[in-house]
Structure formats: C-alpha cells, structure tokens
What we know:
Helix content: 55-70%
Strand content: under 5%
CATH topology of the domain at 90-306: Ferritin
Oligomer: single chain
Shape: globular
Radius of gyration: 26 Å
Order of helices and strands: HHHHHHHHHHHH
Number of strands: 0
Structural class: mainly alpha
CATH superfamily of the domain at 90-306: Alternative oxidase
Amino acid sequence: MARSMSSIVNGIPVSSFLKPSNCGNTDSLFFKPQNSPSLISRRLLGVKSKVIKEEEKTIVEEKFQPQSFPQGEERGEPPGTPPSSGPERWIIKLEQSINIFLTDTVIKLLDALYRDRNFARFFVLETIARVPYFSFMSVLHLYETFGWWRRSDYLKVHFAESWNEMHHLLIMEELGGNDWWFDRFLAQHIAVFYYFMTVAMYMLSPRMAYHFSECVENHAYETYDKFIKSQGEQLKQMRASKVAVKYYTEGDLYLFDEFQTSKVPNSRRPKIENLYDVFINIRDDEAEHCKTMKACQDLGTLRSPHTNPDYASEDDSNLVLPKTD
Length: 325
C-alpha cells in the first residue's frame, strides 16, 4: 500500500506541492518516511522557492510613497540615527508644521483657480517648483564668497534640479499652459515672493528650507500621479512634446543623472513615445526631487551621484557611449 501511494505521489508535479492551500502543509496529507528522498527533495525545492521569492522581493524597487517614510527619516536623518534632543525635536516639529501649513495654503489656492485647467496648473506649479533651487544656489554662492561653507556637490545637484524643472516648465509652455496673461502674472509673482522667502528660510534653517521644498515636490508628484490615472488613455493617443523628446532621449544626459542622488548614473533612461510617457517621466522626476530634498535635510552629507563612492564599484559595462564619426 505504501509503495503504491509513493508511486502516486511521485507522479504529481512538484510545483503542485508548492501552491498554498487552506488545509495547511500539503506534505502532511501523504504518509512517507522522514528520510524519503522525494520528501526531502520537495522540501528543499520549497525552501529554495521561498528564498528566491524573498530575493526577488528585495531586488524589486518599491513605488515612491511620499507618506510612508519611517519615523526619524522625516527629519532627514539616516536610518539608525539616535533621536534628537527634546528642544530640537520640538523645533523640527514647528518647522514642519509651518511648511505643511504654507504648502496646504498654496494647494487650496491652486485647487480653487485651476480645478479644470490642468496644463495651466502645471505651468504655475513648475514655475514655483524650480525657485527653491535658485534660492539655495544664491545662498551657497554667498557663503562661498565669504569662505563660510563650501560644498561643490550641493551646487552641482541643485543646478541639475533647476535644469530639470526648467524643462518641465518648457514642456508645459509647449502644451499651452502659459497662454493666459493671468496665469503668467500669478506664477511670476508667487515665484518672486517664494524666492526671497526661501532665501531667508535657507539662511535661518537649511533643514526647514529643504523640508519645505520636499513638501512642494511631494504635492507635484501627487498632482501628476492623479492626472495620469484619470487621463491616461487620452494621453496615450496624444503626440509627445518635442521638448520632452529632446531632453529625455537626446544629447548628454549627465545633468539628468545628476539630480537623482538615489540612483546610480545611467541607470534610468526614459522612453518617450507619447504624451503619457512624458507625464510618467515628469512624475518620476518629482519623486527623485523629493528623495534628494529628504537627503539634503541631513546637512553636509549630500553627494553627487557622479562622485558618490558608493556608486564607484558599479559595473560600467552598461554605459552608453556617444557614437563617433
């Protein structure tokens, strides 16, 4: 009887034993000696399958989730950093509360004015979003002039961020987002006020200024993500922006890699086939800005991805070199 049962078990594919069942472990349904080769083989395959799945789970990059950062990282601190002292913790909470209030105020204004005018809203948003990087570079240049503080990586990364946001703005202008005089007037005047406010904030507390910029980029990410989900099918039928095609796929992409401090250079090369792809990449850019602004809150630790020693050991075999005549 045991021999016939064994032949039945061996005739069943091993993959069927690896499928979950409401009855618990499928191996317990069949009586076999503990030292049976087939049972050991099945158990080894089950363990191996589980290990492979866990490895694949850790390798796959998670979607950007602005509200899912663990406690402590909200302060721009790396994992494992001891909690801040009592007074500093309260200062951080106060800074972040002010930033959230200011961001929510601007969001409510944009919601009221641009509920059904997406491209105009994006034009205003991109005009505002690039201003902090001008402010950061202005203050950093001032500090360098007086010899107070010098970090070339910060200047490189912030310039690359402003370069990226400028192309977002050019894309929105190509799509007609700046056609109305009122939209240009509003965006420009908010930007002027925002510039001087961010300069003062950055001189007072760089951590607060970086967190405020993170809040703005967070809103930009959520705005584009919502737009893509609601208008995705229509966007797939529309021609891609010429500015986007040139920026994302042509020429030297050094500056495109530079602002993405969480990625190895040359690891992200977008495809642009229609307007849907354009907005997907703009949304992903905003996610990278948000990550970089979070990293900047741990002052003095930001590294350019092109000079980061953690990326120096990466294999250069995937580099795409320009063709020569």
